[in-house]
TrEMBL record:
<keyword id="KW-0949">S-adenosyl-L-methionine</keyword>
<keyword id="KW-0808">Transferase</keyword>
<dbReference type="InterPro" id="IPR029063">
    <property type="entry name" value="SAM-dependent_MTases_sf"/>
</dbReference>
<keyword id="KW-0489">Methyltransferase</keyword>
<protein>
    <submittedName>
        <fullName>Class I SAM-dependent methyltransferase</fullName>
    </submittedName>
</protein>
<dbReference type="GO" id="GO:0008168">
    <property type="term" value="F:methyltransferase activity"/>
</dbReference>
<dbReference type="GO" id="GO:0032259">
    <property type="term" value="P:methylation"/>
</dbReference>
<dbReference type="Pfam" id="PF13489">
    <property type="entry name" value="Methyltransf_23"/>
</dbReference>
Length: 246
């Protein structure tokens, strides 16, 4: 594993701040579906007994593989052996990109060992669907109650959904929507799949001085989302697959 953690963009840093508080101290064997360029993967691998990340986009995979050699595969979850199960399965900012979210969720739950946990994140509130969602290849956003129902119907129990981001996320989304309108005007021919692949690479942080400085600046901003709990434009959800009974 790399000696230092890769930098995170502001939205991803706010997401990780929520996820790390919800993750069990020992998440066991962990699978991350759609790990992108590996910003979360490095952090999750440091906590896990074993880690496997999946990323179908070849360019994002190459970056993630460079950060965690041998722990990232350029495949989807459907390509794994049928009996391969994990104590913890994570899919952050993935489900909104998929036309069949119910089918995808069912396949992810099937990868969770009985008694294990599934973690998701997604953009929140259907009414906020906008230009930045179109640019990123999002089919939908999720109201918290709808996400809870979706996970419950997939067979998960003890479902928890938390909205995060606070006032800062509202400002960031407004800026993203403005930028997205300009970009969409120039890229009308891009398919949803192309937009989805590009979303994992767009405005991703590098290793330069600006991004290293931003990591320091972000830290006090993360406290703001805890001053405004369950406020923001995104959500993190978790649920447990019931343990098998004798």
């Amino acid at each position: 594993m790399t000696g230092s953690l890769p930098p995170l963009a502001i939205g991803a840093a706010m997401r990780w701040d929520m996820v790390r508080r919800l993750l069990p101290a020992s998440p066991g064997d962990l699978l991350e579906i759609g790990c992108g360029q590996g910003g979360f993967a490095v952090r999750l691998a440091a906590r896990s007994r074993s880690f496997l990340g999946l990323e179908p986009d070849r360019r994002s995979f190459a970056t993630a593989h460079g950060r965690l050699p041998g722990a990232i595969l350029n495949i989807t979850a459907d390509d794994l052996p049928a009996g391969r199960l994990f104590d913890t399965v994570c899919a952050f900012e993935v489900i909104e990109h998929l036309p069949d979210d119910k089918g995808a969720l069912a396949s992810w739950v099937a990868r969770v060992r009985p008694g294990g946990t599934l973690f998701l994140s997604a953009p929140a509130y259907a009414s906020r669907l906008g230009a930045s969602d179109a640019m990123a290849g999002h089919y939908r956003r999720y109201d918290p109650a709808d996400m809870a129902r979706l996970m419950t119907e997939a067979g998960l129990v003890d479902v928890t959904v938390r909205v995060y981001g606070g006032p800062l996320s509202w400002v960031l989304e407004m800026l993203r929507n403005g930028l997205a309108k300009l970009i969409l005007a120039r890229s009308q021919g891009a398919s949803f799949d192309e937009r989805t692949a590009g979303s994992g690479r767009f405005l991703q942080p590098g290793s330069g001085l600006f991004w290293r400085t931003l990591q320091v600046v972000i830290r006090p901003l993360l406290l703001v989302q805890h001053v405004f709990p369950n406020r923001g434009v995104a959500l993190v959800a978790m649920g447990r697959r019931p343990a098998e009974t004798a």
